[in-house]
Amino acid sequence: MIKHIVLFKLQEFENEAAKEAKQKEIKLGLEKLENIIPELKSIEVGINSNPEENFDIALSTTFNSMEDLATYAKHPDHLAVSKILRAVLESRSCVDFEI
Fold first, then answer.
1. Gap between the Cα atoms of 6 and 42, Å rounded
2. pLDDT tens digits, the chain, 99 residues: what are they?
3. 3-state SS, one letter per residue, for 5-39
């Protein structure tokens, strides 16, 4: 199995409420993918609670193979959520490893 972990740092927002709303939109959009993309075996999305840390959202997913991860990455519903995220993304960090 493959564990795919991604950390997202969002751009600055006009206020905290706007940032929180966008984080929730992204979280819900990602979580819905579990019921849509068969290759996605599990997903967990967390919004950072610690203001001392640099990243805003953490994504942890599992797949049976790297090929399944590639299928997920190209899936139209994943791309739709990615578009929303990229519009407010400052940086991203990722690791994929076998479990």
1. 14
2. 999 999 999 999 999 999 999 999 999 999 999 999 999 999 999 999 999 999 999 999 999 999 999 999 999 999 999 999 999 999 999 999 999
3. EEEEEECCCCCHHHHHHHHHHHHHHHHHHHHCCCC
Answer for the pair 96, 68: CB distance below 8 angstroms, yes or no: no
Type of residue numbered 29: G
pTM: 0.94
Which of these CATH numbers, 3.30.70.100, 3.80.10.10, 3.10.20.30, 3.40.50.300, describes 15-92? Answer: 3.30.70.100
The CA-atom distances, in angstroms, between 92 and each of 17, 89, 95 are 22, 8, 10
Token pair listed for 10: 């969002």
